[in-house]
Amino acid sequence: MGLPTPDTGHLRQTEYATVYEPAEDTYLLLDALENDREELQAQRPTICVEIGSGSGCVSAFLGQVLSPYGALILSTDINPAANNATRETVAKASSESVFDQCRTRFVQALDGRLRGKIDVLMFNPPYVVTPSAEVDSTIEAAAWAGGVLGREVLDLLIPQVPALLSPGGRFYLVVIEQNKPEDIIAGFAALGLAGQRVLSRRAGIESLSILRFTKPVL
């Protein structure tokens, strides 16, 4: 039997109207984490980070994946409503992990303290192809509008990832085909991170994939 999906029923409250609700992309990321459960537990991560946590569903689920071991699981989002929603979601999670939330883009407010220390990094970025003007145009658009190739936000993060990960650290990334996943994998390879497509699924008109990147242990 698979792990239960975290309870996000509180998102029906009006104060969470701007929070991205769990959808097929979320569930695909949950499946990828659960598929890697044995490896993640063997890794014994101490610091995990979800960028753009939205509902907090992924952070809470990672806590279950790591159980009976625990880690510090940090969730970041630029939307204060998402920070609050995540706080409620992880409070209901059955996990030995410690959860915390921070309002920031990527990990900017925590960068100095996290550099080279993140064992598991997760990001379901705004990946929808849109005009550049739509990127961050509203707090709602910040959750889905990705600009040219759906990559304008992601491309800002990519150069930072190798320095953020610990040796052996993993980065899980949600993409669609329009984002050119093979180009993303090649770009990370040039930065020294091995990557592969670990899971794919069709969801309506979107072809979703999870990419997993690993920093070598020197």
How many strand elements?
A: 7
Chain-averaged pLDDT: 96
Portion in helices:
25-40%
CA-atom Rg in angstroms = 16 Å
How much of the sequence lies in strands comes to 15-25%
Question: Largest beta sheet, briefly?
Answer: 7 strands, mixed
Taking pLDDT < 50 over at least 5 consecutive residues as the criterion, the unreliable ranges are none
Kindly report the spatial arrangement of strands forming the biggest sheet.
3-2-1-4-5-7-6
Give me the secondary-structure category: alpha/beta
Tally the helices.
Answer: 8
- Write the element-wise H/E pattern from the N-terminal end onward: HHEHEHEHEHHEHEE
Task: Present the secondary structure layout.
Layout: H1 24-35, H2 37-43, E1 47-51, H3 57-66, E2 72-77, H4 80-91, E3 98-103, H5 111-114, E4 118-123, H6 154-157, H7 161-164, E5 165-176, H8 181-190, E6 194-203, E7 206-214
Parallel strand pairs: 1-2, 1-4, 2-3, 4-5
Antiparallel strand pairs: 5-7, 6-7
Helix pairs in contact: 1-3
Question: In words, what does this structure look like?
Answer:
There is one protein chain. The protein has 218 residues and is α/β, with parallel strands linked by helices. The chain has helices spanning 24-35, 37-43, 57-66, 80-91, 111-114, 154-157, 161-164, 181-190; strands at 47-51, 72-77, 98-103, 118-123, 165-176, 194-203, 206-214. The longest helix has 12 residues, at 24-35. The model has no long low-confidence stretch (mean pLDDT 96).
